[in-house]
Amino acid sequence: MNPTPSSGTGAPALSRRTFMMSTAAGAAGAASTGLANAQELAPTPPRIDTRVVINGQPHALQLEPRASLLDVLREQLGLTGAKKGCDHGQCGACTVHLDGRRVASCLTLGVKTDGCAVTTIEGIAAPDGTLHPMQQAFVDHDALQCGYCTPGQVMAAIACVREGHATSEAQIREYMSGNLCRCGAYAGILEAIRDAAPRMRAETEGMEGRRHA
């Protein structure tokens, strides 16, 4: 066994390896201490009172200004139907309706919904559990495979019909182009929308007739 190098004073000499290890440990300790201090000094993000009606139910929420509507729905309210796909507004998996207009909830700030009405996939079926015509059409035409994008597809499809953009196959393809299906169930989705559109229009006309009766 090689003897431990001596500094000449009787104490072991400090090797390069020991020096590097002790320096690294000291730096790591200082960094963790600095991070902890920074976290203690960082101000708590303010929360903003937000009143919003979601699927017909009023909610009084306190939201961070940077929180997206998607995160509020999924993490605070347990409404996980809207999916987090790209989180950049490019896939459509998080589509919901805001005051009847389809939006990408991942790009919509939660605080911007103050005083608005939000509808998610959980809120479109009838109170007795009867599926919305578009939901039923997706089932009937097997317009899904893995199902991850389906909630966003259904919400976008409902909006497509209500906007008057479901009068032809080409028009449906154009106005549904913002919702991606990685499984490639586009043929079924197209047929589902074509099937549900007249039923949705009939229901709307029936409601209008009862309203004016």
Layout of secondary structure:
Layout: H1 16-41, E1 48-54, E2 57-63, H2 69-76, E3 95-98, E4 101-104, E5 117-119, H3 133-140, H4 150-162, H5 169-175, H6 186-211
Parallel strand pairs: 1-5
Antiparallel strand pairs: 1-2, 3-4, 3-5
Helix pairs in contact: 3-6, 4-6
Share of β-strand residues? 5-15%
Mean pLDDT across every amino acid position: 88
Secondary-structure-derived class: alpha+beta
Order of SSEs, N→C?
HEEHEEEHHHH
Can you count the beta strands? Answer: 5
Shape: elongated
- Individual helix count: 6
The N- and C-terminal alpha carbons lie at a distance of 104 Å
Oligomer: single chain
Record the strand order, biggest sheet: 2-1-5-3-4
Q: Outline the biggest β-sheet.
A: 5 strands, mixed
Considering DSSP H and I runs of 4 or more, what fraction of the residues is helical?
Answer: 40-55%
Spans with pLDDT under 50 lasting ≥5 residues?
A: none
Written description of the protein model:
- The chain is α+β, with helices and mostly antiparallel strands and 213 residues long.
- Helices cover 41% and strands 12% of the residues.
- It has helices spanning 16-41, 69-76, 133-140, 150-162, 169-175, 186-211; strands spanning 48-54, 57-63, 95-98, 101-104, 117-119.
- The protein has a 5-stranded mixed sheet, covered by helices on one side.
- Strand 3 and strand 4 (101-104) form a beta hairpin.
- Helix 3 packs antiparallel against helix 6 (186-211) and helix 4 (150-162) crosses helix 6.
- The mean pLDDT is 88.
Record keyword descriptors for this entry.
213 residues; 5 strands; 41% helix; 12% strand
